Amino acid sequence: MITGPKWCGKTWTALNAANSVIYMQDTDKRASYLKLAQTTPSLLLRGEKPRLIDEWQTAVVLWDAVRFAVDKEPAKGQYILTGSVIVDDDKDGMSDSADRMEHTGTGRISNMRMRTMSLFESGESNGTVSLKSLFEGNMEIGAVSDMTIEDIAYAICRGGWPAAIDMDREDALEVAYNYYDSVAEKDASNVDKSQKDPDRVRSIMRSLARNISTMTTDKTIIGDVKANDISMTDKTLEVYLRALRKLFIVEDIKAWQPSLRSKTGIRTSDKRQFVDPSIAVAALGIGPEAIIEDFNYFGFLFESLCTRDLRVYSEALRGTIRHYHDNNDLEADLIISLQDGRWAAVEVKLGSKEIEEGAEHLKKLAEKIDTDKFPAPSFLMILTGGEFAYRREDSVLVVPIGCLKD
């Protein structure tokens, strides 16, 4: 099952591996497909294997049909499911019983999350520094990024939407705006069949955009919405945020909690993020020139860009992304944590003047780790918008985002 936001390339990717396909949202056939799904869903599975069922959640019963089919014939690689919406087996009573899955796919259906394209995938990072190689201990890096600050600003605003990569500049910048409008006007309501006020959706997304890469609270978001003369309660906000999460649009970063030498309180709040930084830009109605003029906000957007790319690269290594912030205000913007226990701490610094400060934060964090109970970091890295990749005398790595790959 391939999941991820709309327009990130799930169907195109799946088609490259499939020998037959059924498009559940085909407007000419959708009604007949849904009727078949209600009576004989197995008929929709007929076709040369691997068979792609695109946007399978249109008829959730297909999940159980696929599960039953692979129980009867347990060969691998028979079906590919793609979906732009999280469908859970609903234990909270928030979805209609007809939309619930009777069984999980454990042991039968594996999951792959797709996101928008990283800078390496779009050809803008030259990939001269490999995350995998760093975790293997190869720290002697030396490379040069071709990306300028103007290039980075444009990449943030255009986003990693595959359709936008080869468009001319003006058209490419419109893709994220169209996506934002689609979410507010249609998708947020369609995701759980509950009507959402487009103005509320926009107001919430604008607040998230203003607070991108921070641990801002729900209370702050509610205050932002109310400032626009739009009513909002805690419960209403949660309903709207849940819809945005189910659409894979909001993807906050969980806190990392290692074993420390001393008793230090660790903040457990999530850090606010969109799946792609261009969504924040579209929500605020700005472009590359505007974010360059506001260098402070540019830094938060740059962290969002780096978060997206590190998520893509780390998941290729079976890793996850977290953040660290303790009660003494010591922080690491991003923690890369691999399944085998290896980890690395990353500070994101757009400009070169902040590199020294970032290095000090990383070294202090490394000193706090109780290595009798927890492994030492594989490496400490400052991810920058600069030109040169190098290893400092204190072993902290400085890597431009325009040099990184998985």
What does this structure look like?
The protein is of the alpha/beta class. The chain folds into 2 domains: 2-113, no CATH class; 129-405, no CATH class. 38% of the residues lie in helices and 15% in strands. It is built from 14 helices and 14 strands. The strands form 3 sheets. It has a 7-stranded mixed sheet with strand order 7-12-13-11-10-9-8, sandwiched between helices. A 5-stranded parallel sheet has the order 2-3-4-1-5. Helix 3 links the parallel strand 3 and strand 4 (79-83). Helix 5 (149-158) crosses helix 11, helix 7 (169-190) crosses helix 8 and helix 8 (198-210) crosses helix 9 (218-227). The two termini are 22 Å apart. The model is unreliable at 90-98 (pLDDT under 50).
Brief synopsis:
This protein is α/β, with parallel strands linked by helices. It has helices spanning 10-15, 30-39, 61-72, 131-135, 149-158, 162-165, 169-190, 198-210, 218-227, 234-246, 277-284, 288-293, 295-315, 355-368; strands at residues 2-3, 20-23, 51-54, 79-83, 112-113, 129-130, 143-144, 319-325, 331-338, 343-349, 379-384, 388-391, 397-400, 404-405. The protein is 38% helix and 15% strand.
